[in-house]
Amino acid sequence: MSHDEIQDLLEGYVDETLDRATRRQVEAHLAGCEECRTILDGVPPVGLGDGAAAWDERGMRRAVRRSMLRVAADALLLLFVGWLAAWMISLLIVQPFILNRGDRAVAATIATVDAAIMLNPGVTVEGYSYRSGMAARFTEVDLALPVGGAMKSLGTIASRIGLFGFGEVEGGRLFPYLYDAPDRGEGEERLEAVGAGTVATVDLWFEPRLDPSAAQAIVDSEAADVSVVWAGFEVAGEEGSNLAPSGVLGYGTCGSFPITISDAAGSSGGGSGTALGGPSSITSAVDETRRAIGSLVEHPDLLAGMGASVDDASAALTRLERPQVAQLVVTGPTPEVIRFIDEAKPDAVSVIEFDFIDWSQRPCGGGL
What is the pLDDT of residue 296? Predict the structure, then answer.
């Protein structure tokens, strides 16, 4: 049997499909033919005379590695192109025309700041930031409590507005500092026990409610050297509402509020510039509370994200047509706070915070 005939039978020899006699002939040929043994081992022989390049095992492995690297590079390139396309779609379409339609993304940032102040007696905002994702916008607000001339940090709250809704960031709480003093009605005794050498921030409750002008007259009477940092107004009955669980919403009364929101197309998809003015009196606190609730009425999806409705907000605005002061939060030297309480005659006093510092600088500006 010829050399070429043996080569044609090698596949059958490997598959064990040859009859016994033919198999013996192939084995006899392999014993003396190095070329056929090389073919049988799976490596093409050198110099077959057809001009084909020679291959060895190492070269085969290099070729496979190069192919795998090309596939990986192509996959990474496709991922990058996909991310870039998604980012461009977000920047040019999702952010300006869907997420921020009607300036709702800007309104969500303002609502987060407003709600933090309205719902939390005495709270002020030290700063805020926002960032835009592919299909959402996140706002973080840093809260603080004036205690004498200092500010006690209360942490950060965060909100998220997406394509379909508004609310707290996953894993966090939108309003972590809902003040519920355990000593309501016993605060004056605590103040007298602490005495001089400290400053205090207290929450004063009034029943019957005060007219804003009467409350402002008490503040301006100079009967005591304290600063009023927050004023709360009755917006619901004793049962409260979804918008105001305590039945009271308010705003800070401690000077200007340095927050200006001016959105550029590249960061949040457009939007108008909006300045939040800080009230410096109880009357202007009423105006800020009205403004904050009114902006929520214009964005029902923000109200829904807070667990409230347009009806809740509208009812609050109706109550504010004839505002009544339900709470005042004041801070100052503890003896001066006691003097102010004697002048204002609140129905109940709750101590929010004490500190052992000097009353050298008022939180609303100006020294002694």
Answer: 92
Paired strand residues for 250: 232
Question: Which residues make Cβ contacts (< 8 Å) with residue 164, sequence separation at least 6?
Answer: none
Distances (CA, A) of 355 to 200, 202, 329: 6, 12, 16
Q: Give the model's pLDDT for residue 14.
A: 75
Distance CA 214, CA 94 (A): 50
- Would 33 be classed as within a structural domain? no
What is the rounded CA–CA span in Å between residue 298 and residue 243? 15
Q: Does the residue 274 lie in any domain?
A: yes
What is the extent of the structural domain holding 234? 101-355
Cβ contacts of residue 9 below 8 Å, gap of 6+?
Answer: 18, 22, 26
Does residue 209 lie in a domain region? Answer: yes
User: To the nearest whole percent, how much of the chain has pLDDT over 70?
Assistant: 79
Judge whether residue 275 has pLDDT over 80. Answer: no
User: Can you tell me the distance from the alpha carbon of 332 to that of 359, in angstroms, rounded to the nearest whole number?
Assistant: 7
With respect to residue 95, please indicate whether it lies within any of the assigned structural domains: no
- From the number of C-beta atoms within 10 Å of its C-beta (0-12, 13-18, 19+), residue 213 rates as exposed
Q: Domains in the chain: how many in total?
A: 1
Cβ contact 305:348 at 8 Å: no
- pLDDT (tens digit per residue) in 300-333: 999 998 889 999 999 999 999 999 999 999 999 9
3-state helix/strand/coil string of 118-143: HHCCCCEEEEEEEEECCCEEEEEEEE
